[in-house]
Amino acid sequence: DTQLLNYLGAARAAQQRGDWERRDFYLQQAHRSMPEADVAVGLTQADLQLAQGQLEQALATATHLKQVAPRHVHVLKLLAKLYRELRDWERLHELLPELRKRGVLDEVQLRRLAREVSAHRLDSAAREKDAQRLQAVWKAMSHELRSDAELVDRYARHLVELGEGLIAERLVTEALDARWDDRLVKLYGQLPGRDAARQLAHAERWLKEHPHEATLLYTLARLALRNRLWGKARIYLESSINGGAAVEAYSDLGALLEQMGDRDGAMECYR
Fold first, then answer.
1. pLDDT digits over 154-168, tens only?
2. Average of pLDDT values for 63-71?
3. 63, 88 contact by CB (below 8 A)
4. DSSP letter string over 40-85?
5. Is 205 exposed, middle or buried (0-12, 13-18, 19+ CB in 10 A)?
6. What mean pLDDT is predicted for residues 202-207?
7. Rounded to whole angstroms, how far apart are CA atoms 115 and 121?
């Protein structure tokens, strides 16, 4: 009386025994027993293929289901999972609006997924050494994503790798003016700007609002070193160390003191 359910159950049992041929046979029988249940049978088939690590076959099944039932929530969820497993970020990017429209994921899950997809698309453009595509990917992202400090950091570093350091500097400056973030503060001191003096002056304006922040003090020290302002660099390095800066500050101060002839002070910093 319930052939469909029993065939599907038998297919799962066959997979548990490692009998793939019988699994597929039972799935075929399930479809024949109730052709109108194509989606239910297909979802079971794709789930079993996915559980077995047969990703390409599962994707073929899910793609067929998308054609049969383009708005089916479980089909869309399965496709999203498969694209992610296969690291097909472009197709997943194209699927995101449909996932949002159909309520497949909640807002928190959607934001997390959109962020992951955007990060990988930026990485992909950078690996291809395509600065134009990299910038196009960035511009196509939502305002919320372009305000995400981790994505700003990732994009800026890729810009520098591709010889677009000036764009990276402007991007990070604007991001920090809008929202403070330690990671971007540290990156700012590493960016190869056109005018090191102007960079230092801009960062010193931030010091008025963040006077005791170790990361900013270390960034100011890096910029002062680039401007060959040894005395100012020393003050900023010592202040950043007093504020709890990381090991790099001791290393840079040691190198500076050694350059200034203070070998004992340099050795103390190195120690």
1. 999 999 999 999 999
2. 89
3. no
4. HHHHHHHHHHHHTT-HHHHHHHHHHHHHH-TT-HHHHHHHHHHHHH
5. exposed
6. 94
7. 10
